[in-house]
Amino acid sequence: MSEHEWVTNFAGSVTVCDSEGIVLEMNAAAGRVFAADGGRDLIGKNLLDCHPDPARGTLERLMDTQATNVYTIEKNGIKKLIYQAPWYRESKYMGFIELSLEIPADMPHFIRD
Fold first, then answer.
1. 39 — alpha (psi -120 to 50), left (phi > 0) or beta?
2. Residues 78-87: what's their mean pLDDT?
3. CA 46, CA 22: separation in Å to the nearest integer?
4. Cβ contacts of 94 within 8 Å, gap of 6 or more
5. CATH code of the domain containing 44
6. Is the pLDDT of residue 2 over 80?
7. In whole angstroms, what is the distance from residue 76 CA to residue 57 CA?
8. What stretches of 42-86 show up as alpha helix (H) in DSSP?
9. Is residue 58 in some structural domain?
10. In 3D, which of 63, 70, 71 has the Cα closest to residue 87?
11. Whose CA is closest to 10, among 35, 31, 29, 34?
12. Can you tell me whether residue 55 is helix, strand or coil?
């Protein structure tokens, strides 16, 4: 298995951009999620161009501050966890990763000590 082969068919959507917002990688699920916007043809394009305000402003702020952004959404009856976080190479900020994972409407929650 190659270094990144596991992510290709991972059920969650994985999108990776560089520090300027240029999409570097998308797995198959991300290609399907963003099919109406071009799918995997978005690789090489700036993700900021795909987001109108206020989402664009939020992304610019996250990229400037290298902050993590985590939230849930519901669209067409499907709930998702969105996790956007910076990635680094040898301690140098390289860009952002977005994970989008479908979550069940009645997901169990456990508190562990």
1. left
2. 95
3. 4
4. 18, 19, 86, 87, 88
5. 3.30.450.20
6. no
7. 25
8. 55-65
9. yes
10. 63
11. 29
12. helix
Residue 2 lies in a domain: no
The DSSP annotation for 3-22 comes to TTHHHHT-SSEEEEEETTSB
Helices (H), the chain: 5-8, 28-33, 55-65
Number of domains observed in the structure of the chain: 1
How does strand 13-18 pair with strand 23-26? Answer: antiparallel
Q: Which of 15, 55, 49, 56 lies closest to 32, judged by CA? A: 15
Asked, for residue 75, whether it belongs to a domain, the answer is yes
Identify the pLDDT of residue 9.
Answer: 85
> Mind listing the pLDDT tens digit for each residue in 22-80?
999 999 999 999 999 999 999 999 999 988 889 899 989 999 999 999 999 998 889 99
Residue 112 maps to a domain: no
Cα–Cα distance, 68 to 41 (Å, whole number): 26
Residue type, 47: L
Give the range of the structural domain holding residue 30, as residue numbers without chain letter.
Answer: 13-103
Residue 11 and residue 57: Cα distance in Å, rounded? Answer: 29
- pTM value is 0.89
